[in-house]
Amino acid sequence: MVKATLQGLLAHKLRLALAALAVVLGVAFVSGTIVLGDTVNKTFTDLFNTTTAGIDVAVRGASTGSAQGIPQHPPVPASVLPTVQAVSGVKEAFGDVERIGTTIVDQQGKAVTTGGAPTIGLLWNPYPDMAALHLKAGSPPQGDSQVVIDAKTATNHGINPGDRIEIILPVGPPRTFTVSGVAGFGTQDNLAGATISAFDPQAGRAILGSETEYESIFVKADSGVSAEQLKTRVAAVLPAGVEAVTGQSLAQEQTDAVKTLTNVLSTFLLVFALIALFVGSFIILNTFSILVAQRQRELALLRAMGATRGQVLRSVVLEATITGLIASMVGVAFGILIAKGLEALLNAIGLDLGSTPLQVAWTTVVIGLVLGTLVTVVASLAPAWRATRVAPVEALREAVPPPTAVTTRRVSVGLGILVAGIVILCLGLFVVSSSQLLVTGIGALATFVGVAVLAAILVPPVVEFLGWPVRRLRGAPGKLASENARRNPRRTAATASALMIGVGLVACFTVVAASLKDSISSTIDRTVTADYIVTPENQGAGFVPLGVAQALRANSSIAAVSEISGGNFHYGNEGDQAIAIEPATIDRTAVAEIQQGAPLASLGDDAVAISEDAAKNHTIKVGDAVPMQFFRPGVRSQRVATIFARNPLFGDYVVTLNTWRAQNVDVQDFAVLVKGAPGVAVADLRGKVESTLKSFPGMKVQNNAEYKKSQANQIDILLNLINVLVVFAIVIALLGVVNTVALSIVERTRELGLVRALGMTRGQMRSMVRWETVLITIFGTLLGLAVGLFFGVALVKAFASLGVNTVNIAIGQQISYVVIAFLAGLLAAIFPARRAAKTDMLRAIVTE
Question: Is the pTM of this model over 0.90?
Answer without folding.
Answer: no
